[in-house]
Amino acid sequence: DGFTHLSGDGSARMVDVTAKAPTIRSATAEATVLVAPEVLEALTGGTVPKGDVWAVARIAGIQAAKKCADLLPLAHIIGVHGATVDFEVGADRIRIVATTRTADRTGVEMEAMTAASVAGLAMVDMIKGLDRSVELTGIRLLEKTGGRSGTWRREANGTTGGA
Amino acid sequence: DGFTHLSGDGSARMVDVTAKAPTIRSATAEATVLVAPEVLEALTGGTVPKGDVWAVARIAGIQAAKKCADLLPLAHIIGVHGATVDFEVGADRIRIVATTRTADRTGVEMEAMTAASVAGLAMVDMIKGLDRSVELTGIRLLEKTGGRSGTWRREANGTTGGA
Amino acid sequence: DGFTHLSGDGSARMVDVTAKAPTIRSATAEATVLVAPEVLEALTGGTVPKGDVWAVARIAGIQAAKKCADLLPLAHIIGVHGATVDFEVGADRIRIVATTRTADRTGVEMEAMTAASVAGLAMVDMIKGLDRSVELTGIRLLEKTGGRSGTWRREANGTTGGA
Amino acid sequence: DGFTHLSGDGSARMVDVTAKAPTIRSATAEATVLVAPEVLEALTGGTVPKGDVWAVARIAGIQAAKKCADLLPLAHIIGVHGATVDFEVGADRIRIVATTRTADRTGVEMEAMTAASVAGLAMVDMIKGLDRSVELTGIRLLEKTGGRSGTWRREANGTTGGA
Amino acid sequence: DGFTHLSGDGSARMVDVTAKAPTIRSATAEATVLVAPEVLEALTGGTVPKGDVWAVARIAGIQAAKKCADLLPLAHIIGVHGATVDFEVGADRIRIVATTRTADRTGVEMEAMTAASVAGLAMVDMIKGLDRSVELTGIRLLEKTGGRSGTWRREANGTTGGA
Amino acid sequence: DGFTHLSGDGSARMVDVTAKAPTIRSATAEATVLVAPEVLEALTGGTVPKGDVWAVARIAGIQAAKKCADLLPLAHIIGVHGATVDFEVGADRIRIVATTRTADRTGVEMEAMTAASVAGLAMVDMIKGLDRSVELTGIRLLEKTGGRSGTWRREANGTTGGA
Question: Is A130 at the interface with chain C, CB within 8 A?
Fold first, then answer.
């Protein structure tokens, strides 16, 4: 027909999930913000704007879980039916743990990883005036449940080859 | 007046930048995706959807640079006047480098870090079917130029206290 | 483990609704725009841009019903399956009535209140050039149906303690 | 030409502001949430999720100031260069005061009113489980500065005809 | 009641689809970009940025399928559960074919047409520096399946009266 | 360094416009909706929802002009400082003319073409229940002014090679 066809197996596509069953699925991911101890002290000790650092980061993370289909080109629009973002403060780092839940057709692993990442970025945004070298690291899936492949848990200290 | 006032120094606020001059500013940030060598081989060798992995991640990163004000609660709406996202492939990792530019009133450090992060998340989204343990790490500012504080460069191997 | 845990009952979270059944639910809310009679006369009499005031406000309201998950940090992403916005014009006020419907897992009360509010703000946006003192008021739920708690109707003249 | 032209003075249009000068402008608006005293007591006394009520509402308001061009069909895309949202708690009401600032081509009155409104809606979203009759009211401009028309202040008790 | 009611059959409304069944539905639409042969040659021959023209347009189209509820005022929020965008290159034109799929309550015809249109606009955005007269044309539905009305296919050469 | 660099001239990038001067620029584009005469008659004669067809399409178009940076991956975030969408009705077609204006660093050609396209899609969305074969066609730039390249006008009947 005089046309050269350009689609093929290598093309980006949003995979068809119409045949997948809506079931309850969850995912938990973590991220870590590395920060100079003196900055962390200021952060928790009240000499810089503080209480709201946690609230701003938490809310940024929850909202980001809802923006996955907008941020990730091949992600599906699905219902996001639950999301939490919590923090743990160590000597030189803040650990962020995000959990997302759905009763829809796809897993919510990317929603959890995106929530953890954006909570971390919001934290960096508030810290960078004090410490430009702040680093966001260790964004990874900890656990998923539901769906055809069922439950998966990261092994202790288990990391991918590049760790 | 019978009212208890709840605002204070600890409240979240979008800092007033109306007095800052619009000048040319840039920022460069990096992120790293750690991935099992066999997955990386498949990724670059063509046995999984490939060419577009780079395009999807690059475009996701560029678009994310434009979504900063939406993702980060206290970020300002500014013009984003240039953005690039590039990749380097090692034995067990992919390094993402994002650069953003503006001729507006604030720095674009968060735009660069967000672009690198979301490019990485888009890559994770495409890899996770092959390797759930994939990890996004080392998101940090490499350099900024322009604005009142001028140029800043991360020192070689220089990381924050928690590294 | 050396970490101080920061999550608790007071933290913002998107409540888990995965266990709620998808059923037909509706909500109706109202808002009122108070406006100087001479401005209202101009508005309805054709000496200012008019026909479209209603269309712009109506469409802004319908679109806002779809933006709830984006505007309200803890709101869920749900399907919005029906929305109407109607107006009643009095001597010195315009009454806005918004109704939203869904067949999803949560109520649509906030969708209806957001639709009424944003329709009102769009109206204010078009009126403020004529009358800066224009006021948007009385945004409240009138009725909801469906879901576990069933039907609720505001009592006549029933307002909360502060009315 | 056989065509019937449908545009006219009554059509919605985004007014051309290319000729307006970028100058520093600000606006302050208020909104009030009316709430049963016992609910307000729970809210401030800690028997319901609380600390974050203020943070969630504040952040929702700040983010909404940035969404004006998306929410209001005829609003312009402009830089939003500063935003604050504060609260005052009375016996049966919460007063929200939002201030927005820009160094761009249009006023930010609608940004301030939208911030106050959406902060109020976010508060309603968190209160409605306790009190469905909660009402959002009194959304109005208090002051604006800058631009061709200069400073305007609402007179004490000054309301529009419908008050 | 002293109020003039302004709603009527002619008002914009988001039609209530709560009673429609969630079933598998699909739609395919096409669009055509008309472009000078020498530009097309440059485009496919590598003297202008190329490989990514297809990737950028494809991704823009897939993402646009997810933005229908945001772009079209009366469209519903539904799940988008599959999307592809492919290209065929002729002597003086590029044909875009977009297919969308859902397991939700409404058809996805507008999602397919929007995907084809925005893929075309993204292509125009990259071509316009070379050829300002580039034209996007022939955006139309080719086929739909599922839902109450079942399958529909455009007849060969079948166009509407104005073709 | 053991890394393979993947960026090159063929990669998608948001071109740097920080050096371009903010000046007044405008663009006008058109689109045409081809529709069966009997449907057009119903549309203008009142036996289908009508008045609002024009308002919905006009508002969808104006709002789309503001969404260019979100829809087109390589478009810049710029101020949109004026937008109009008008209609002309012929025997079997509706002609849409969109004009956009800015005082910012890039041209607004894509804003005008996107406004015309999305106004057309909104119209298709309302017509498709009556006529599935409705077609959106002839989306093209008519004129641009301002910027380094100054004024450009499409020649009468002038179309690209593929017309």
Answer: no
